Amino acid sequence: MSSREPRVPPERLVAEMVPPPRFDSVRFENYLPDPAQPSQREAVEVLSGFAAGIGGPDRAGGGKRRWFRRERRGDATAAQGPRGVYLDGGYGVGKTHLLASLWHAAPAPAEQKAFGTFVELTNLVGALGFQQTVRTLGGHRLLCIDEFELDDPGDTVLVSSLLSRLVEQGVALAATSNTLPGRLGEGRFAAADFLREIQGLSAHFRPLRIDGEDYRHRGLPEAPAPARDEEVTRAAQATPGATLDDFSALLDHLSSVHPSRYGALCEDVAAVCLTGVQPVPDQSTALRLVVLADRLYDREVPVLASGVPFDRLFSEEMLAGGYRKKYFRAISRLTALARDAADLRPA
Predict the structure, then answer these.
(1) Which UniProt keywords apply (predicted)?
(2) Is the pLDDT of residue 251 over 50?
(3) Which of 256, 245, 217, 239 is nearest to 338 (CA)?
(4) Alpha-carbon distance 64 to 61, whole Å?
(5) Does residue 3 lie in a domain region?
(6) Dihedral of CA 242/314/116/88: which sign?
(7) Contact by Cβ (8 Å): 240, 75
(8) Are the C-beta atoms of 117 and 18 separated by less than 8 Å?
(9) pTM value > 0.85
(10) Rounded distance, CA 25 to CA 182, Å?
(11) Any idea what DSSP says for residue 228?
């Protein structure tokens, strides 16, 4: 992978705003709520109702779609709720499954629905420009944003402005994250101006809490132990379409590729084989690795590695900091992909 230099034209960015391969076949019907977590079943019910209201022709004055009618309560009228839903919960509770199910269930043509990660959305703005992005997505019925993040103040203002414009044009919004919208940015930056932006952004969403444990490891055995270097090399040579990289060299290469292109970096890769995995040296490197782990997981690419186990990738300081939920998600997903790679190991 460290020899790849992907280039992604803007038109491809728009065309690829659909659920990734791992979530092609997910639906509300095959989401399995944990019986011990009633919030999971409630999420399915709320999102099913939300999806049903997306494809209809109901429009308010000026041609804008009217997602929430006004209803009389005694002598007063009040608008019903915000124009989006926000799935909040820990890693591994099925938020992306539910978000993709919403995209599939919404009774609107595929070209009027968009699904992408927060990184992909900000990159789209960079490629098309703000106004063109508003025009492009403003014609959609639904925008789903996975892994909603506000890692720097500039992106906070950018996305807040973009979503406000899309709401004005009647676009329904749905997002997932590990943090409630009113607390986005906690532990990352604390400037009053940007906290104000966060609060304004959160007003667009109805928070929907999803409790539970990580389904990827629920009732499963421990992650497989790391392989030996020679096992990883032999597996890469024996697996068509596999890549073979030294872990440190791959991390260096990631610093030269924009995270929005990590999906293209993984294109047509059958398996990722890594030698010499070790704890990441700094937070910038760690965050790039998180994005790569997400793209590999989306594409169901198994990962066979030697070196330290994946649960030792991030330092205790990192796991206690403001990005801890990202790091735990990456550990969870890489562990799942390591299980998928078990069959690659030589007998």
Answers:
(1) ATP-binding, Cell cycle, Cell division, Nucleotide-binding
(2) yes
(3) 217
(4) 6
(5) no
(6) positive
(7) no
(8) no
(9) no
(10) 32
(11) P
Question: End of a domain among 196, 213, 230?
Answer: 213
d(CA 91, CA 19): 18
Residues 231 and 168 in one domain: no
**Final residue before a domain boundary, out of 213, 240, 264:** 213
CB-based contact 112:144 (threshold 8 Å)? no
> pLDDT grade, residue 310 (50/70/90)?
very high
Give the full edge-to-edge strand order of the sheet including 303-307.
242-246, 271-277, 303-307
How far from chain centre, in Å, is Cα 258? Answer: 16
Rounded distance between C-alpha atoms, residue 94 and residue 53, angstroms: 22
Identify the residue with better confidence: 340 or 63.
340
Segment 125-154, tens digit of pLDDT: 988 999 999 999 999 999 999 988 766 677
Q: Which of 103, 120, 101, 102 is nearest to 111 (CA)?
A: 103
Helix axes 192-202 and 153-168, enclosed angle (nearest 10)? 30
Q: CA-CA distance, 15 to 129, in Å (whole number)?
A: 16
CATH of the domain at 63: 3.40.50.300
Q: 145 pairs with which residues across the strands?
A: 116, 175
The sign of the dihedral angle between the CA atoms of 5, 145, 99, 168 is: negative
**Contact predicate 91/178, CB 8 Å:** yes
Taking the chain, what is the end-to-end CA distance rounded to the nearest angstrom? 25
| C-alpha distance from residue 4 to each of 75, 83, 267 (Å) | 65, 41, 10
Q: Do 221 and 157 reside in the same domain of the chain? A: no
Least confident of 64-73, 193-202, 282-291: 64-73
The size of the chain, in residues, is 347
pLDDT in tens, 203-233: 888 888 898 876 665 555 566 889 999 999 9
**Which residues are CB-neighbours of 316 under 8 A, at least 6 positions away?**
none
- Asked, for residue 260, whether it belongs to a domain, the answer is yes
- Higher pLDDT among residues 221 and 47, named by residue: 47
Give CA separation, 240 vs 3, 8, 132, in Å: 17, 24, 41
pLDDT of residue 240 exceeding 60: yes
